[in-house]
Amino acid sequence: FEHLGPEHAVILLMDEEGELQQAAARPEEDESSPISTTLVHEVVEKGQAALAVDVTSDDRFAGAKSIIASGARSLLAAPLLDSEGCVGMITLSSSLTKKIFTEEDMELLASLASVAALRIRNVSLAQSAAERDWLQREVGLARRVQESLLPKKLPELEGFEIDASNIPSRGVSGDFYQVMERGEGDDREIISIVVDVSGKGMAASLLSVGLDTAISVLIEAGIEDAHQILGEANNLLYRKTPPDKFATAVLTILKPATGQVQWVNAGHNPPLLIRASGEVTELEATGFPLAMVPDGDYSAKEFTLEPGDLLAIFTDGIVEAENPEDEEFQLDRMVEAMMMAVHGDIGGIRESLETELERFVEGVPYRDDRTLVLLRRSPA
Hints:
The chain is α+β, with helices and mostly antiparallel strands. It has helices spanning 37-45, 65-69, 103-149, 201-220, 226-240, 316-319, 330-339, 346-361, and strands at 8-14, 20-26, 50-52, 74-82, 85-94, 160-167, 175-182, 189-197, 247-255, 260-266, 272-274, 280-282, 301-304, 310-314, 370-377. It is elongated.
């Protein structure tokens, strides 16, 4: 306005969908600013400034009724253009009695628009960086909340070893595990649960926190059988979640006095029961994933954990980890990695698996969360 003296001016900026939206105008709330598809085509799509000394005699704008109706006669426009592309446009207009724009005016506006475009792009990048920083802080806070819900200390019981880990692939995890004690003396039980919520990221992590809380409440409420706990959790999750959300889970109840283990597998990767003899048994699914069907039927099964036997419950982020050749780690490599350290302490078994997994992927990012719970009865 100071250098070019228009009556009206408007700045349009591209939104996230690539549509032009009014960002500023003078006079403010100016509804008479001459913006038309013809002008947008001339300036934004062609990426060049446009000058009309008199729009009524300019063939380019002969069909631009919105410009003619606005009362504008002399028109000047320039794209907000930088090396990355067009971020919008600026248009100046005036009646012929007020101002007639010239070629020199167009050159000046084009220069101002170029400087403005660079500034707008830099501000946008700064805003994006600030938003990313904010999101990273939120993800970090969410992860700390998740970690606070994981067991701070695993139960200690004579004659048994327990180890567990949860490693997210995207800052927060859609997996979770719990290892809880219940009862005393010969009635003492160790209850473990491993869950893998469908999807990844924040949405999966929020659902996992809710499911973790619900299952913990059901366990603490004294529901005795594994299939009843998962049955109640299934009904709750089915009522509270969208149809496309579900979770797989394995729940085990160990009675240390006898070594008896009751287990239920709700559509989860089969846990591995590795006997002291080296025999490996997969604990296949005994019911549908949680929240997939109402009133799901989850049958429980049992085995006895003998001295030297190892139970490994895990999520598919481990066996589906890929190397640069797109090969998956798979179950055989997992068993082999654990067997390499099976005669050491239980923490060494987990470390051996992690070492072999890192060697296998060769730096390829993990696409899914990795959760592992190990339970071993000490050798006789």
